[in-house]
Specification:
Blueprint (H helix, E strand, L loop, with lengths): L1 H24 L2 E3 L5 E3 L1 E24 L4 E6 L6 E2 L4 E5 L2 H62 L4 H58 L2 E3 L4 E6 L6 E2 L4 E18 L11 E6 L2 E10 L7 E8 L12 E18 L8 E9 L2 E12 L3 E6 L6 E3 L11 E5 L1
Parallel strand pairs: 1-19
Antiparallel strand pairs: 2-18, 3-10, 3-14, 4-6, 4-9, 5-8, 6-7, 8-10, 10-13, 11-12, 11-14, 12-13, 14-17, 15-16, 16-17, 16-19
Helix pairs in contact: 2-3
Length: 401
C-alpha cells in the first residue's frame, strides 16, 4: 500500500507538471495589444486603393534648340525665375554664320524675283504692243477689202484684187489671234514662274525666322514663372539638339500622380472623386487623366485637387489614394486595417469568449474605413483587424486581459 500510495503521488505530480507546462506553452495575446471591431451592417461607398505622389501642377522641361556647347549658367537649382529670364547661354557662333549665309541667299532670291517680274512685264508689254499694231493692220486690210469689193461692183476693179485683199485680211486676222493666244500663255507662264520664285523666297524666310528664334533663345529663357528644379551646369560640355537642359516647376500649385494595380484599373474613370490622404490630413479631388497603357503591372492616372495650393502639399510627398467607383446601401462590414490587401479569402481571428479562433472569411469591396464581408462572419461577432502575422501558425489564442 505504501508503494502504491508513493507511485500515485508521483503520477499526480507528473500530471500536474505536464498540465502546467501545456498551459504555459499555449500562445496568448493581450487584448490591449490588438485592435478589434464588431461586425455590423451598414452602407459602403466602394473605393479602389492606390498610391500617389505630389508633383507640381505645371512643370516644363526645357530643351536645347541646337547642338552646341554650354558657355554660361545663370541660375542654380532652387532659384525662383520669371518668364523670359535667361537660364543658360549656348555657343551659337556656327548658327550665327549659318544665319548670315541664309540672309545673303534670301537677298539674292528676292533680287531674282524682282528681275523676273521686270522681265515678265517687259515681255508682256511688247506682246501687247504687237497685238495693238496687228489690230490696226487688220482694220486697215478690212477697209481695203471693202474698197476692192466696191470698186469691183462698179466695174473699176477685178476679182483677183478682191481675192488678194481678202487673203491678206484673213492672214492678218489669224496673226492677231495667234498674238492674243501667245499673250494669254505668256501671262500664265509669268505668273507660274513668279509663284515658284515667291515660294522659294517664302521658304527661305521661314528658315530665317526659325534660325532667328534659335539665336534669340541662345540664352535659353524660362518658359514661365516658377522654380528651377533641375539644370545642366557643366560649363564647356556638349549639348545635343533637343537635349534636356533644365526643368522649371510652378510650386504654387500641385496635382497627384497616382497608380493602381492593373486588375483594379477598370474601376478608375475620368471624373471619379478621389480622397487623398497625406499623413493625417485628407484632401479631395477628381481623376482628370488616365494613362491608356499598363506599365510594370500598374496603371497611372492624374488627380486634379480641389485645393491645389494647400499648405500641406510638398513636391515628392507620397500619399494614399481612395478612388470612388460605387455605393452599396446594406452590407455586412468590418473596419479596414493592415490585414486587407484586396478582395479574396482571408484567415481572420474571431473572438469566442476568452479565446481567439482562426476562421476563413471572404472579403469583397472596400473603402478607406470599411471592408465588405461576403461570407464567414455575422453581425455582432467581434473580429481582430490588426496585423496578426506573428501568430500565422496558430489556430487558437487565449486572451489575457
Amino acid at each position: 500500500m505504501r508503494r502504491a500510495i508513493k507511485w500515485s503521488v508521483v503520477a499526480a505530480v507528473a500530471v500536474t507538471v505536464v498540465t502546467i507546462a501545456i498551459l504555459n506553452t499555449r500562445k496568448s495575446v493581450r487584448l490591449q495589444d490588438i485592435r478589434v471591431c464588431e461586425v455590423e451592417r451598414g452602407a459602403l461607398e466602394t473605393t479602389v486603393n492606390g498610391t500617389g505622389r505630389v508633383v507640381p501642377a505645371r512643370e516644363e522641361i526645357v530643351n536645347s534648340p541646337v547642338e552646341s556647347r554650354l558657355l554660361k549658367v545663370f541660375v542654380s537649382p532652387g532659384d525662383s525665375v520669371r518668364e523670359g529670364m535667361p537660364l543658360i547661354e549656348l555657343d551659337l557662333e556656327s548658327t550665327e554664320n549659318s544665319y548670315a549665309k541664309l540672309l545673303d541667299e534670301l537677298q539674292i532670291k528676292e533680287r531674282e524675283l524682282t528681275q523676273l517680274k521686270l522681265n515678265n512685264r517687259t515681255q508682256l508689254a511688247e506682246l501687247a504692243m504687237q497685238i495693238e499694231v496687228q489690230d490696226m493692220q487688220v482694220n486697215r486690210l478690212k477697209v481695203e477689202v471693202e474698197n476692192e469689193c466696191r470698186l469691183d461692183s462698179l466695174g473699176s476693179g477685178t476679182g483677183d484684187r478682191v481675192r488678194q485683199a481678202e487673203i491678206a485680211y484673213r492672214t492678218a486676222l489669224l496673226e492677231l489671234q495667234r498674238l492674243r493666244a501667245r499673250l494669254d500663255n505668256e501671262r500664265e507662264r509669268a505668273a507660274a514662274a513668279e509663284s515658284v520664285q515667291q515660294l522659294s523666297v517664302s521658304s527661305f524666310e521661314k528658315d530665317l525666322n526659325l534660325m532667328r528664334r534659335t539665336l534669340e533663345m541662345g540664352r535659353i529663357p524660362a518658359p514661365h514663372d516658377g522654380v528651377v528644379t533641375q539644370i545642366t551646369n557643366e560649363i564647356g560640355s556638349r549639348i545635343g539638339a533637343g537635349q534636356q537642359v533644365a526643368v522649371v516647376s510652378d510650386l504654387s500649385q500641385f496635382k497627384i500622380e497616382g497608380e493602381v494595380p492593373e486588375g483594379s484599373s477598370d474601376r478608375v474613370g475620368i471624373g471619379a472623386s478621389v480622397t487623398v490622404r497625406i499623413g493625417g490630413s485628407e484632401l479631395t479631388g477628381r481623376v482628370s487623366n488616365i494613362t491608356p497603357m499598363s506599365k510594370r503591372g500598374v496603371v497611372s492616372f492624374v488627380v486634379r485637387l480641389d485645393d491645389p495650393s494647400n499648405s500641406r502639399l510638398r513636391s515628392g510627398v507620397s500619399s494614399e489614394l481612395y478612388v470612388s467607383y460605387g455605393y452599396k446601401d446594406d452590407v455586412v462590414r468590418i473596419a479596414s486595417g493592415p490585414y486587407f490587401s484586396g478582395p479574396g479569402i482571408y484567415e481572420m481571428w474571431v473572438m469566442d469568449g476568452d479565446e481567439l479562433i482562426k476562421q476563413k472569411v471572404r472579403l469583397g469591396d472596400s473603402n478607406r474605413d470599411y471592408v465588405e464581408v461576403l461570407s464567414g462572419l455575422n453581425p455582432g461577432q467581434t473580429v481582430v483587424v490588426s496585423d496578426m502575422e506573428t501568430y500565422a501558425s496558430s489556430k487558437k489564442l487565449s486572451i489575457k486581459k
